[in-house]
Amino acid sequence: MQEVTASARLINTVGLHARPSVKLTQLAKRFAARIEVATSAAGPWTDAKSPVKIMRVKASQGEVLHFKASGADADAAVAALIDIVERKFGEE
Amino acid sequence: MPANPNVGIVIVSHSAKVAEGAADMVRQMVGDNVPLASVGGNAEGGLGTDVAAIMAAIDRAWSEAGVAILVDLGGAETNSEMAVEMMPEERRERIVICNAPIVEGAVMAATEASGGSALAVVRATAEELMSA
Hints:
The complex is a heterodimer. By secondary structure, chain A is of the alpha+beta class. Chain A has one domain (about 5-90): 2-Layer Sandwich (Histidine-containing Protein, Chain: A), CATH 3.30.1340. Chain A is built from three helices and four strands. In chain A, a hairpin with a 7-residue loop joins strand 2 and strand 3. The mean pLDDT of chain A is about 95. Chain B has a four-stranded parallel beta sheet with strand order 2-1-3-4, with helices on both faces. By secondary structure, chain B is α/β, with parallel strands linked by helices. The model of chain B has no long low-confidence stretch (mean pLDDT about 95). At the A-B interface, helix 1 and helix 2 of A face helix 1 and helix 5 of B.
C-alpha cells in the first residue's frame, strides 16, 4: 500500500505539550489510516492515535514533526495533521 | 438528543475539589463529547468517598458503551468497587476501575473515549500511563 509522508515544523509556543497532544490524537483517530509521528525522518515512529505515547514524544517549538500514513484515507489524514500543526493546534 | 455513544468517565477522589479540578481539565482539554461525572468527599462533606454518591456519578456518566472510573487513594477504589457491585447486573460488566493516576488517567481515558474507542481500549490507554 502507498505510504503518504509529510512534515511540518512546530511553531506554537508550547510544542507538543498536553493539550496539543490530545488534539493531535483526537484528529488522528478520525481517520482509518495507520498514522505515525516522529521528530526525525529516521524515526523512532510513534502511533499518532495513542495519546499516552504522543505526549511522551515531548517535541518542542521549532522541532519538525514527520508524519507517515497508510490506508485508504492516508492522504486526507496527513493533510489534516499538517494543517493542525500549522494552525498551532487552534490555540494561539 | 441521542444518547452519547462514547464511553463515559467517572472521577472519584477523596476531595470534591480534586474531582472537580480533574473534570475541568478533561472538559477543557478533551471537550464535551464524552459523558463525564466527578464525585468527591464523604456524606458529611469532609474528605472521603461515599458509595451512594459514586453510584449516582456512574448514572450521570452512563453510556451504553460503558463507564471507566478513575480513583485516587485506597477508599476511593474500595468504595468504587462496592458501588459497581451495587449497580444493576446488566451494567456491571460495562463498568471498569482503571489502575491509573487520577488526573492524567482521566484526561487520557477521555481522549481515547472521545474517538469512539471501546471500553477495554479506553481502560488500556489510561493504564498505559503506569508503564514506563
